[in-house]
Specification:
Elements: E1 3-4, H1 5-8, E2 14-22, E3 27-29, E4 31-32, E5 46-50, E6 53-63, E7 66-71, E8 81-86, H2 88-112, E9 116-122, E10 125-130, H3 137-152, E11 157-163, H4 164-168, E12 187-193, E13 197-200, E14 214-222, E15 228-235
Parallel strand pairs: 1-4
Antiparallel strand pairs: 2-3, 2-8, 3-7, 5-6, 5-8, 6-7, 9-10, 10-15, 11-12, 12-13, 14-15
Length: about 240
């Protein structure tokens, strides 16, 4: 199984690895810093160099428990040494966005007790849905103010791994209305925004809330009787 470098250190931009599988879907490595996508966060892009060749990584995904890298050209052979480079501008923008969504989620859970019902993101933009019957422009402005106060508080962000039973014993760890954790995983990766938000999460994040920049709520809408959406963009501070 591929070692997912990004799970323990989201700031690894390049890495060396060995090809352990080649198929129609792409190339499998013994370790990778490319995030495979999930939880609303898109996959990483970048390049994979081997011998005298350099191939663009067009897509990264999980297939049958493995992380597969789709390349734009002929793949390396099994056993080849490769050097991967993550498209850092794209990755870091997604890290800022993902952390912003956790800040939004943390504020709404803490102050209003609402579950998350869905979400998605692109670099520096995203949306999150919550279990609310009503949502107004004044409410959106208040949430924006609260979220940016948490950014200004410069809260550290850390990652740890908990045994599955210990994770499920934490009453607030699963923020989604429906538990999306796969069955059978022995450990749960937990992202902790110190003093604000603790969630089970597999994505990549910045190291401190101040690194997000600034959140701006750009829209709100109803997606159902008790399902309301907030749209946001991420700006430089």
């Amino acid at each position: 199984m591929t070692e997912p470098i990004f799970q323990k250190d989201a700031f690894v931009r390049d890495f060396d690895a060995v090809v352990v599988g080649v198929g129609e879907a792409g190339v499998t490595l013994d370790r990778t810093a490319f995030y495979a996508g999930g939880g609303g966060q898109p996959c990483d892009f970048g390049t994979l160099a081997f011998g005298d060749a350099t191939a663009v990584v067009n897509k990264v995904s999980r297939k049958d428990g493995e992380i597969v890298h789709e390349l734009d050209g002929p793949p390396p052979e099994i056993g080849a040494q490769v050097h991967g480079v993550v498209d850092w501008d794209n990755r870091y923008a997604l890290m800022r966005t993902h952390t912003a969504l956790h800040i939004l989620c943390g504020v709404i859970w803490r102050d209003f007790g609402a579950h998350v019902t869905g979400g998605n993101m692109t670099p520096l933009a995203g949306h999150m849905d919550f279990e609310f019957e009503n949502m107004t422009a004044d409410f959106a402005e208040r949430v924006e103010e609260l979220a940016n106060a948490e950014i200004a508080a410069a809260r550290d962000i850390s990652v740890r791994f908990l045994p599955r039973d210990a994770a499920f014993a934490h009453p607030d760890l699963i923020r989604t209305k429906i538990n999306l954790l796969p069955e059978g995983i022995p450990e749960v990766r937990v992202v902790d925004i110190n003093g604000l938000d603790v969630q089970a999460d597999g994505g990549t994040h910045v190291a401190n809330t101040r690194d997000v920049g600034r959140i701006r709520i750009v829209g709100h809408e109803s997606k159902g009787r008790v399902n309301k959406r907030l749209r946001l963009v991420i700006e430089d501070a």
